[in-house]
Amino acid sequence: MVRLEKRAQPSQTFAYLTPLLAVLATFLFGGLLFAALGKDPVQSILTIFWEPLFGEFAFYYRPQLLIKGAPLVLIAIGLSLGFKAGIWNIGAEGQYIMGALFGAGFGLAFYPAESVLIFPGMMLAGAFGGWIWAMIPGILKVRFGTNEILVSLMLVYVAEQFLASMSLGLLKNPEGFGFPGSRNLQQYDSAHNAEIIAGTGMHWGVVAALIAVIFAYVLLARHRLGFAVRVTGEAPRAARFAGVNPGRLILFCLGTSGLLAGLAGLFEVAGPAGQVSIDFNVGYGFTAIIVAFLGRLHPIGIVLAGLLMALTYIGGDIAQSQLGLPAAAIQVFQGMLLFFLLALDLFTNYRLRVGRVEAA
Amino acid sequence: MKLTTLLAGAAMALGLATSALADGHEKTKVGFVFVGPIGDGGWTYEHNKGRLMVEEQLGDAVETVFVENVAEGPDSERVMTQMALDGADLIFTTSFGYMDPTINIAKKFPDVKFEHATGYKRADNVSTYSARFYEGRAIQGHIAGKMTKSNIIGYIASYPIPEVIRGINAAYIHAAKVNPDVEFKIIWAYTWFDPAKEADAARALIEQGADVVLQHTDSTAPQAAAQEAGNVVTFGQASDMAQYGPFPRVSSIIDEWGPYYVARTKAVMDGTWESMDTWDGIGAGMVGIGEITDAVPADVKEEALAMKAAIADGSYHPFTGPIKKQDGSDWLAEGEVADDGTLAGMSFYVEGLTGEIPQ
Predict the structure, then answer these.
(1) Taking CB atoms and an 8 Å cut-off, how many pairs form between chains A and B?
(2) Which residues in A lie closer than 8 A to residue B91 (C-beta atoms)?
(3) Is the peptide bond before B297 cis (omega within 30 degrees of 0)?
(4) Cα A133 to Cα A334: distance, rounded to the nearest angstrom
(5) Chain B residues near any Cβ of chain A (below 8 Å)
(6) Alpha helices, DSSP H, located in B59-122
(7) Closest chain B CA to residue A322
(8) Which chain A residues are Cβ-neighbours of B160 within 8 angstroms?
(9) Which of A165, A177, A184 sits opposite B120 (nearest CB)?
(10) What is the CATH number of domain B2-131?
(11) Distance (Å, rounded) from C-alpha B344 to C-alpha B346?
(12) Measured distance CA(B308)–CA(B295) in Å, rounded
């Protein structure tokens, strides 16, 4: 007879091992899925994981990893702070949109003037847009005790309506023949978040993501505020005794995650995406939740998880094109990753015992 | 700098490969970038049918590849680059939002041909193509105006862009022509494909008394909502949606991309491909009118088919004056026909429509 037994202490080994095991399990079951679809499972998995990194055209795909991974990491870092403290911001997608709208709106207001001050101003505006959008659930929670999960999630749909309205109205390109979408910021030098070194994929959003990672690492490991975050998540009552002000912590966590999501939106709209359009948001804010958990809410883990997710997107598209794998199969494959991670997480806190239950 | 050099190198290598292809030694590779899933039953489904026609008609001479669910923006640029690097000779990018990405990537691969659907930016190696769906809307408007008993026609619009406004105007003009009492109720769904939202919109319109519902969104959800209501007429959109016939679906507008895709692929094979702008309608076979079912009275069906024939042979244009704008100002004088430029950027309602185009 097999049964689960709670561990006295969470297993450190398993905490680090589960992401690896989850990836292996995903390979195995993903491979079976691909085989069932009539594709060579080994070749499919190689195409997804090997081709972008070491294939013939890796020189092109490697920088793409940064472009795809940076917004995920930037948003996930912010989310992880709140998640550690038990504050659940599910609406990063909305904050990402608002950051892009505020930032792009600021830049476009100056079109066609050129100045080195425009881009920094856009960054401030973008960060403010994301921050203010996250403060709505924050203040409502602190003041009225509303549920931040629901409020932040609902505000995503409000933000999407704003995005559509802006693309069709206020920010619409006056030279766009009535079609929706703003001017392309890639063609506006002062506002363009260009690659810092061409061909490397390294734009300011990547730099910001790296800074955020270091900032979060130092905060959690060294700073009193980081201690407050950790202790609130692990033992809320103890946190009260330690003098943590829960209201301020909520506002800090939601505000920071909103700010970073807003920045991610600004860097995306001013760089790789180029314009505000109805379908500008592609789900980075939601995928970042997966990235945060896949990375164990640890700054370094999040970097690795963000790159891994980016890899599955890029490799997944290659597999679609080269092997004819349907997009849905790739999505199932990505879903498996989170599923196995959460399932295997059980073993961090529990162990399997084989044998009879001893009589009490 | 380095990447540009590398890409240029790759592009040159491909250029050599392309010239070899023109000799017929190797397969011509055609890529398709799709915005939705190929099983959406509407927009992407029809583009994929076009792809399949290329494979079917050109057989071993071609190889097609596609990626579905590609987000507009950097993801689409990556997918196009990947196809070009993998040796595609011709790439169809089938959503308006791929416009700037297509132009960006086309610059990096001057020897690869690109075809962008529904956009307005072209380059030496980028063509654009779109269909005159408003021609089909005119026929729908005629049938709708004849069949409504409540004189209220519901319209599920997607986004307030010229393409959609053109459709509303064309349908309204022809509905009002046969039924001056007709009123259009328009709901903006702000989506191209969202079955739940579309069903809600359809139900709301039906509750407001609409007994005909036209849709400019791609799912079959409004058809199902009309079927539930029992006495509401609908038309298939993008795809035939024949499974909802003979009632509520009494006809449809079908996107027929296949012949165009075959022709353009052949042009690449022959080396006769040139950058151009194509805007074809019923006459050229890019817009199909699905079978008009027996739920439509025989005389109405006959009139509708006559209009279809007249549009096809060019003797009738759906936007023929006299037509005034909503504010009462003159647009087209008696017998005057709308020019393509105005139609392409249409951002106003014609006289008789109520409400405002949202901003």
Answers:
(1) 114
(2) none
(3) no
(4) 29
(5) 1-4, 6-7, 10, 31, 37-38, 65-75, 77-79, 81-83, 85-86, 96-97, 100, 104, 120, 159-162, 190, 344-347, 358-359
(6) 74-85, 99-108
(7) B65
(8) 168
(9) A177
(10) 3.40.50.2300
(11) 6
(12) 18
The span from the CA of A330 to the CA of A318, in Å, is 11
Give the C-alpha separation, B150 to B347, whole Å: 28
Enclosing H/E stretch for A97: helix A92-109
**Pseudo-torsion of CA B75, B65, A48, A337, nearest 10°?**
70
Amino acid at A358: E
Q: Nearest-CA distance from B138 to chain A in Å? A: 22
**Spatial separation of the C-alpha atoms in residues B210 and B153, rounded to whole Å:** 5
Is A322 close to B74, i.e. CB distance below 8 A?
A: no
The class that CATH gives domain B133-254+288-344 is alpha beta
Residue by residue, pLDDT tens for chain B (359 residues) are 445 555 555 544 444 444 444 444 489 999 999 998 998 888 999 999 999 999 999 999 999 999 999 999 899 999 999 999 999 999 999 999 999 999 999 999 999 999 999 988 999 999 999 999 999 999 999 999 999 999 999 999 998 888 999 999 999 999 999 999 999 999 999 888 889 999 999 999 999 999 999 999 988 999 999 999 999 999 999 999 999 989 999 999 999 999 999 999 999 999 999 999 999 999 999 999 999 999 999 999 999 999 999 999 999 999 998 999 999 999 999 999 999 989 988 989 999 999 998 87
Neighbours of B60 (CB within 10 A): 7
Nearest-angstrom CA–CA distance, A349 and B246: 60
**Run of H or E residues at B238:** strand B233-238
Are the beta carbons of B3 and A60 separated by less than 8 Å?
A: yes
| pTM of model > 0.80 | yes
Distances (CA, A) of B78 to A317, B51, B125: 9, 21, 18
| Segments making up each domain of chain B, as ranges | 2-131, 133-254+288-344
Instruction: Please return the burial class of A121, using the count of CB atoms within 10 Å of its CB with bins 0-12, 13-18 and 19+.
Output: middle
Q: Determine contact: A342 vs chain B, CB below 8 A.
A: no
> What residues in B contact A328, CB-CB < 8 Å?
37
Partner-chain contact A184 B345, CB within 8 Å: no
Report phi then psi at B217, rounded to 5.
-120, 165
- A234 has a pLDDT exceeding 90: no
- The shortest CB-CB distance from B73 to any of A56, A198, A282 is to A282
A157 touches chain B (CB under 8 A): no
Which DSSP helix (H) or strand (E) runs through B147? Answer: helix B133-147
Q: Which residues of B touch A68 (CB under 8 A)?
A: 74-75, 78
